[in-house]
Amino acid sequence: MRCSTSQTSRCQRSERVHPRPRPVQASALSPDRLSPIQTWPVGDGSPARLLSLGTLLLVIGLLLPGAPVFAQEAGAPEAPAADAPAATERLSLAHHLEWETLQSPRISPDGRQIVYTRRFRDPVGDGWDNELWVMNADGSRNRLLGEGSDPRWSPDGERIAYLREGRPGGTQIWVRWMDEEGAASQVTRMEHGPSSLRWSPDGRTLAFQAPVPAAPDPSWRIDLPDRPGGAEWTEDAHVEDRIHYRRDGTGILPRTYQQLFVVSAEGGSPRQVTHGDWDHGAPRWTFDGQRLVFQSLRVEDADRQWRHSEIYDVEVATREIRQLTDRRGPDGSPVPSPDGRHIALVGHEFTRDTFYEQKLWVMDSDGQNLRELAAELDRTPRNPRWAPDGSGVYFDAEDRGHRHVFFASLDGGLEQVTDGTQVVTLTGMADDGTAVGTLTTAHDPGSLIRLDRGEGGVGSARSPTVLLSSNAELLARVELGEVEEIWYESFDGTEVQGWIVKPPEFDPNERYPLILAIHGGPHIMWDVGFDFAWQEHASNNYVVLYTNPRGSSGYGSAFGNEIDHAYPGGDYDDLMIGVDSLLARGYIDEENLFVYGGSGGGVLTAWIVGHTDRFTAAVSKAPVINWMSFVGTTDGSGWYRNFRELPWDDPSEHLERSPLMYVGNVTTPTMLMTHERDLRTPISQSEEYYMALQMEGVPTAMVRLKDGWHHRREPPSNFYRVQLYLRNWFERHMVGETPATADGL
């Protein structure tokens, strides 16, 4: 369709079958294997993931208030107010200037109050502001406490500890009394900001992490000649000898190690309780307040170890450190039980597999009798926390585009606590077992929820009660696109899950341009939660398809490991057959198929245009283009391990899996979009592909984003640029009439 006569021999035609050219082993795709896709409705108005409330800002001449909506059962229809405005608008980027989110709700030990963090979009400062708010457990008396984040209740429920700016600068620990006076005191005054704070069981002490500078290496000292008076010499050179010396989002890493400290909740001098040239993970108190449990790897050349960490504890009084686990593999997220008998943790035995779902384990408090819980789940446990009676562990886990709360009992049982088309994250639990968290669905950007203890007792099913729905009035004025879940069969019989976002006022008799959105990772998953970007694309009359091809998390270890030493590979086939399945519905304009992805999705986007010409235009965001140059320039050494051989021993696999090797096939107009400071997939990768496309005469452009790192949604104005440049590129190459848009270009 878009191959010139001279290019036809090396350009894959846009047929129903899309074989991958050599040197990669191709999988035969037979149209006879395609089964009718099964569909389920998604987005029934249930509340959702990112939480926010109105600030009554004037946005582009439009007043968009965001009053909260209080307690209702999750999924229950909300009765419209008599004066509620009709949904007459389409979602636009101007609405995002008013956006708010909710994070980290925590319930008081007596179950009476909930404190949480609200993030407000700051359109002037191009960022977000954090505030602490509190409400009663029934959702009433929602009120501001002040600036801050990451609140933690004291064991008696009379105070909260939290993080906020303080003297002499940067983040510090504060404590606020939760009485009518509400007095707040700054507890720490550290040069390097604390994090991961935890109350001791008696409420007298706080434990936390903080970076401590390493001693300088005197062997690197040099003596320059004396500078002449008034001389302005260039700054000193930076000398590096660490294998991991930089990180995306930070830049060059300071020579520091994360250490654990304790400090009186009334203030004073913090006392360091760990030591040595190792990083120590977030602390958790044992029930008696005598020890702190944490993750680390206190061995020689720890930074050169791969997929290996251990669980330790330290006696606070003596600073004596004890190793509790001793096996090859990563162990982390330790949580001592409330009765002091056990420690729960997340980890797995060592494997060289590209992907693995982690497991939930429990051991005695001295590290003995390590055993697996919930072995049948084959999903990674997140946010583990003990039931108040110590009978088992609650956690949430991703599962086929959803996230739910589960309970694993010490006697070996496993119960799913929540259900439905939603993403639930557990964040706090009261002494009586009442839990709080956040919830998201396709049509609600976030809700604060309460999960009352089920009638069946510990571990029984719970129905979320929504205490606070955010952006409620804003979204009441906006007509969102319908989101539909699909399943389809891939070339080898593998079932693949995906979702379709349709434009508002969708008409199946019309023909719409399609955007295929590909996730990164590659071992993550798209989920059923609200996504502003896709809804904003749909508001501009695009149909958006997003799927979880093989390699995605949330479907078990075997599914995720399908791309072991084969990335890209069968995931490409899964994506193409997903597009075929959607075309069979008849409402997609086959002349206007577009594709984009970021990071790992950028890899697949570049791979796609080198293996088929069916797409009208493509945008590859922050891609890997050349695995040989990437593994040595990304911000870690782990990617070297994802190939059978090191590139200087045998470069063949690196070359076979590099999109750069197929640039001679490309005819699709392809734009690159990457942050200039990206250290995860450095912009040099985009530059390589850009120059190769230029040399091949393929229409291309490179958007070099400023003031951000790998993730392209921050600062927020860059999110707007990404959305608009992406559609600008698509509409430059669109065949026929350009769709009406809600946002300008």
Task: Write up what this structure looks like.
There is one protein chain. The protein has 745 residues and is mainly beta. 11% of the residues lie in helices and 33% in strands. The protein has ten helices and 44 strands. Strands 1-37-38-40-39-41-42-43-44 form a nine-stranded mixed β-sheet, with helices on both faces. The longest helix is centred in the last third of the chain and has 17 residues. The chain starts with 37 loop residues before the first strand and ends in a 13-residue tail after the last helix.
What would you say about this model in short?
This protein is mostly beta strands and 745 residues long.
How many β-strand stretches?
44
How are the strands of the biggest sheet laid out side by side?
1-37-38-40-39-41-42-43-44
Poorly predicted runs = 1-70, 75-82
N-C termini distance: 27 Å
Helix content: 10-25%
* Rg value: 27 Å
How would you describe this structure in keywords?
single chain, nine-stranded mixed β-sheet, 745 residues, disordered N terminus, 11% helix, 10 helices, five-stranded antiparallel β-sheet, 44 strands
Task: Write the topology of this structure.
Layout: E1 38-42, E2 58-59, E3 62-63, E4 69-73, E5 89-90, H1 93-96, E6 100-107, E7 113-122, E8 127-136, E9 143-147, E10 149-153, E11 159-165, E12 171-177, E13 184-186, E14 195-199, E15 205-213, E16 246-247, E17 251-252, E18 256-264, E19 271-272, E20 284-285, E21 291-296, E22 310-315, E23 321-323, E24 331-336, E25 342-347, E26 359-364, E27 371-373, E28 382-386, E29 392-399, E30 402-409, E31 414-416, E32 423-429, E33 435-441, E34 444-451, E35 465-469, H2 472-476, E36 478-479, E37 483-489, E38 495-501, E39 512-518, H3 532-539, E40 543-548, H4 557-560, H5 570-583, E41 588-598, H6 600-609, E42 617-621, H7 627-630, H8 652-656, E43 670-675, H9 683-696, E44 700-705, H10 716-732
Parallel strand pairs: 5-36, 39-40, 39-41, 41-42, 42-43, 43-44
Antiparallel strand pairs: 1-37, 2-3, 4-35, 6-7, 7-8, 8-9, 10-11, 11-12, 12-13, 14-15, 15-18, 16-17, 18-19, 20-21, 21-22, 22-23, 24-25, 25-26, 26-27, 28-29, 29-30, 30-31, 32-33, 33-34, 34-35, 37-38, 38-40
